[in-house]
Amino acid sequence: MDLGIAGRTAIVNAASKGLGRACAMSLGREGVNLVISARGEEVLEATAKEICDTTGANVQTIVADVATEAGQDAVLAACPNPDILVNNCGGPPPGDFHDWTRDDWIKALDANMLSAIALITATVDGMIERKFGRVVNITSVAVKAPIPVLGLSNGARAGLTGFVAGISRQVAQHNVAINNLLPGLFGTDRVMAPARAQSEQTGKSIEETMAGFVSTIPAGQIGDPADFGEMCAFLCSAHASYIIGQNILMDGGQTNVTM
Asked: What are the phi and psi torsion angles at 155 (to 5°)?
């Protein structure tokens, strides 16, 4: 299927590895010009080269932490008028809610709520003027089914979800579609954080803990980041204008909800 976005320009944040990298790769295959950001320069540059070599896409890199205003400004300076924005930022660490301070909460909100809101606010008017815009926020299954050891993430991502529920319907008439993509367990570095936390709590090995995780997934396996990237690309496509303000689960059926 031709997604109808060749020649468009996209910002993909936290794109040096994991799900962000997969999204950038899939968009590159569709002929999208990419501006990708991450905190680590070496890995980011290697990823950009791989995407360029694999897809032929034009890739610009920005070394930045988009959880900060300075990082957001750097990305927007490089690409002030994207057609596509993929919001992604590393999640806060797991832990016990008794131990979290106000500073911990502010860091979580900056990374997983306020940074995405700031970037949407900065770019959505241009999308409206051009009558095309796609925003995909990479959040978490925790929005639907909170994960106790990831309480900081639960709270921050729920806040972003509420914001998107409102603004997405305000801008939809202008062919601007804003949605959230909710990953479950995928084969990335991030999956190890809750695994280690649960391993420490239960005394089980990492291998036993991961096997336990997989046993709760009806699909019987950890997700492939490439599949996640392809779903992201579709939500960014010309064919997704009627998908508005949705929370789309990609978790192999693990989250047992009706709605």
From this structure: -70, -50
200's tokens: 């420490």
CA distance 151 to 84: 29
142 contacts 223 by C-beta, under 8 angstroms: no
Min mean pLDDT across 23-37, 51-65, 205-219 is at 205-219
Asked if 165 contacts 245 with a C-beta cutoff of 8 angstroms, the reply is yes
Residue pLDDT, tens place only, 233-245: 999 999 999 999 9
What three-state secondary structure class fits 32? coil
Is the dihedral angle over the CA atoms 251, 34, 17, 99 positive or is it negative?
negative
pTM: 0.93
pLDDT at site 197: 75
CA distances from 155 to 66, 94, 146 (A): 19, 13, 9
For 106, residues 6+ apart whose C-beta sits below 8 A from its C-beta are none
